[in-house]
Q: What sequence folds into this?
């Protein structure tokens, strides 16, 4: 019996395998979260230099796979044994093995979240196309949320890829009928685009970025237009509540923007598992 057949016939084995795979991919997501914005910034500098007619300086190329991960303090290259998801961080007690600099706890938390959410996806949907798609969606949303927290950017390469992957799954109606998914993508973008321009006309300021439009469009492509009211309500209520709390606690100035991507991502994950009840609440199921 092949391993794939074993996975399809044993839910516990499939869930355990998804957990391990999620932990491994979570380690890679940490690299993407840190490096991808730097790669984008480097590319912008190169393009700006070309437009100005300047020579682009030769520099080591940064990619998602090279150079090897290093300690930012001493430059120590992370070995394979030091890169085991969660376990290495615990064994090293959250410190670099070379210089003792503290390693952020976010790295094992991202790995753990990726593993647990992957296992949840397979437990909920089974070892099916819907389960695999739920894992893919989870990886994208975790990565986008944390990049937005760090940089207030939602890269087009990721949001648009997520949109097309959602439409691809829905060619077979995995999460929503294809017409509903296409309308969801269009409506998701236009709703936040309209809010953006109304806010800008009323206040003269930008209330959100274009990446938020594209992320909501991607979620519309995954879940269909019927899910959009619940996604918008959930993300807006949580975002507003947290924003007010941060201002009251004086951890955020009124003029300091708060990234909206994490709230959209959280609402997307809730819709993944509770989409039908949420849509029924709005009378759209």
A:
């Amino acid at each position: 019996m092949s391993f794939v057949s074993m996975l399809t016939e044993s839910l516990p084995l499939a869930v355990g395998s998804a957990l391990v795979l999620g932990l491994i991919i979570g380690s890679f997501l940490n690299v993407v979260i840190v490096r991808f914005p730097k790669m984008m910034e480097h590319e912008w500098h190169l393009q700006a230099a070309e437009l100005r007619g300047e020579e682009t300086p030769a520099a080591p190329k940064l990619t998602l796979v090279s150079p090897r991960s290093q300690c930012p303090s001493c430059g120590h290259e992370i070995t394979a044994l030091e890169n085991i998801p969660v376990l290495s961080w615990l064994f090293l007690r959250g410190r670099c093995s070379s210089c003792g600099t503290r390693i952020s706890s976010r790295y094992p938390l991202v790995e753990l979240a990726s593993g647990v959410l992957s296992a949840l996806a397979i437990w909920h949907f089974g070892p099916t196309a819907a389960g695999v798609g739920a894992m893919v969606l989870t990886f994208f949303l975790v990565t986008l949320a944390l990049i937005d927290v760090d940089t207030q950017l939602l890269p087009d390469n990721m949001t648009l890829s997520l949109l097309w992957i959602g439409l691809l799954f829905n060619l077979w109606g995995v999460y929503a009928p294809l017409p509903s998914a296409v309308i969801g993508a269009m409506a998701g973008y236009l709703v936040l685009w309209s809010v953006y321009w109304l806010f800008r006309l009323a206040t003269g300021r930008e209330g959100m970025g274009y990446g938020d439009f594209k992320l909501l469009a991607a979620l519309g492509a995954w879940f269909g237009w019927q899910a959009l009211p619940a996604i918008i309500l959930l993300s807006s209520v949580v975002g507003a509540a947290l924003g007010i709390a941060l201002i009251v606690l004086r951890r955020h100035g009124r003029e300091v923007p708060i990234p909206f991507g994490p709230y959209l991502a959280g609402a997307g994950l809730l819709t993944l598992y509770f989409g039908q009840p949420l849509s029924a609440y709005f009378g759209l199921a």
User: Anything to note?
Assistant: The two ends are 41 Å apart (CA to CA).
